[in-house]
Specification:
The structure is a homodimer of 329-residue chains. Chain A has 329 residues and is of the alpha/beta class. Helix content of chain A is 45%, strand content 16%. Chain A is built from 13 helices and twelve strands. In chain A, the strands form two sheets. The first copy, chain A, has a six-stranded parallel sheet with strand order 2-1-3-4-5-11, sandwiched between helices. In chain A, strands 7-6-8-9-10-12 form a six-stranded mixed sheet, with helices on both faces. In chain A, helix 8 runs parallel beside helix 9 and helix 10 packs across helix 11. The longest helix of chain A is centred in the last third of the chain and has 17 residues. Chain A binds a DNA duplex (30 and 30 nucleotides) through helix 2 and helix 4.
DNA sequence: CAAAATATGTCAATCGTTTATCACAAAATA
DNA sequence: TATTTTGTGATAAACGATTGACATATTTTG
């Protein structure tokens, strides 16, 4: 049996009240008793039962983090950054992999509530916004519009879309295709598409939009990509994420379409992983660290003060373009 | 304020005891009252407070998962598989990114205990084994030796090492180098090295072992790799993980060393990510799904029955070789 | 119709900790 | 010396749910 507060009291030869006072550091305490208690805690390897503390009114220091897919390097890096931030602030993370499955997301949401998490960071949503409104907990969201009063952090998707499209144009492309995950209009990542459309129009070009679902298997995605490449119509492709861009590069190579001379490609996300293992890929780099910092910052503010409000609930962080070989001219 | 059991009772017009009976499904209950209660639960969006339940003696259904680095695709896939398994069994995961930092690992361990997790899966350890013995909770380990009575699951690292080395030899390599993360002898992944040494010896070749730390930055790793390649001594390299193998391929290309004609390369891990985006890389594929299944299976057995024992505490799962272009001849 | 089974309620203890209140020292200050 | 400050203990009520003991209906069965 795990030692409890009364065991520590007995060991230290003081009252339970005193032990609690030492742990929570309030009231009058002499150095001597403090040390006695600390020593007893050490010897028994005692840790206060979080459940009991939290039940009594203290925070749980648990944060629920919901993402669609942790095996996607972008989310892995985001989660890693969030975890770092949370850890430094004394919070622990319950990771929920929703897998683009609304039932799972719903179950996780209920579980997080039941486990009395102090707050939730969500980077996915396939649920009715209503479900999130019912939660009654501090929430912040990454790249998803949930509700009026849920802060939403994202990179400047529109700016990224412009930069990417312009890069292709300036590298000489005149028939620029868009490959991307089809999204609802309210989804901020949809701004990448919007920016693409606006930008090609600005240059007097036509938009060619192709939907490729994230959730689809890479094999399936590859087939769609291949079909498109076989038409040999595009001289530039803007992919809404790097993994799709890599697929395009792969299929292009198989079809002996030379990049960047015959076809230029640019992606989106710019994970460290890709920067290291695919430095040739031009891409739009999301400021993952800054996103994680802002998400946790906003959430913690809300936890400390539930009435915490900012003028706006939309936070767009600037992206950077990484020009490399796949858009060289 | 979140509704509680008594609120549900009031709403349904029954006693708190009855509500509890409905939730926990025991004693005599009429369909009518059950429905009344269910409806009240629905209307109030009530969830029993996990903290209170667990404090009362029920399980927390929380499992701590400790890994060194979630941004490493291998661990991302492992964590993803573990999460799937746990979710299906009704458990939730607290993800701990230890970052090769023993202080952080220690803090996380304490936190998991304080949060009364039902069990721990650990895939890293930089702590004294003693720390883990003190835990007094069901633990299972991936690829790390913790203690006599902690089950340890890993792929058959030795078999993998043999397969990899043999593959290089059979593809014609006669000067085979080993690039890997230096490990303590007790670490099961060290068996990859052992297998390499045994196998080259079997073929009458000399072993050439080069240490490259996982925890080092890719840039630093790349430098070591480059230095080695510049010597142009090896005609085959066995890397103890795929990421290092990719680095070797990259540096080889920069130095105009052609793979596989001048140099053959084989990695280890075989993540889905690499299989998709680097199908050219020959590698040893770890059975991630099976590892995750076994880990959770063993842990759950221990949770249900703390005295659960198996004849052995070492579980080695067979690996598969994936022959591809980087070892073609 | 009596006995058993079914259905619900009341009450209280429990889990481990926090925290307020009251009490009573001993030490420091006026 | 009288008073305040400081240090400690004892006691009890929370937090929200579970569960056992017991009482009391109502319904079903023999």
């Amino acid at each position: 049996m795990r030692p409890k507060l009364t065991d520590v009291a007995k060991k230290a030869g003081v009252s339970p009240t005193t032990v609690s006072r030492v742990i929570n550091n309030y009231g009058y305490l002499s150095e001597k008793t403090k040390n006695k208690v600390y020593q007893a805690i050490q010897e028994l390897n005692y840790r206060p039962n979080s459940l009991a503390r939290s039940l009594q009114g203290k925070q749980t220091n648990l944060i629920g983090v919901i993402v669609p897919d942790i095996t996607n390097p972008f989310f892995a890096e985001l989660v890693s950054s969030i975890e770092k931030e949370l850890f430094n602030k004394g919070y622990k993370m319950i990771l929920c992999n929703a897998n683009y499955d609304s039932r799972k997301e719903q179950e996780y949401l209920q579980m997080l509530i039941a486990n009395q998490v102090d707050g939730i960071i969500t980077g996915t949503h396939n649920l009715d916004i209503e479900e999130y409104n019912k939660v009654g907990l501090p929430i912040v969201s990454f790249d998803r519009t949930l509700s009026e009063n849920v802060p939403i952090v994202s990179c400047d998707n529109y700016q990224g879309g412009c930069l990417a499209t312009e890069e292709l144009y300036q590298s000489g492309c005149r028939h620029i295709d868009y490959f991307g995950n089809p999204q609802s209009i309210t989804n901020p990542t949809n701004q990448r598409l919007k920016a693409y459309e606006d930008t090609v129009q600005k240059f007097g070009l036509k938009a060619h939009v192709h939907a490729v679902r994230f959730s689809e298997s890479p094999t399936l995605k590859a087939v769609s990509v291949r079909q498109l490449l076989e038409q040999h119509t595009a001289d530039g492709i803007f992919c809404s994420d790097d993994l799709t861009a890599l697929l395009v590069l792969q299929e292009a190579q198989k079809l002996n379409i030379h990049v960047p001379t015959q076809l230029k490609v640019i992606g989106f996300d710019g994970t460290k992983l890709n920067q290291t293992y695919h430095p040739e890929l031009s891409t739009i780099v999301q400021p993952v660290k800054e996103i994680a910092e802002l998400l946790t910052e906003l959430l913690c503010k809300r936890i400390e003060n539930p009435d915490f409000k900012t003028e706006t609930n939309q936070f767009k962080l600037p992206v950077k373009i990484l020009r490399s070989k796949t858009t060289a001219h």
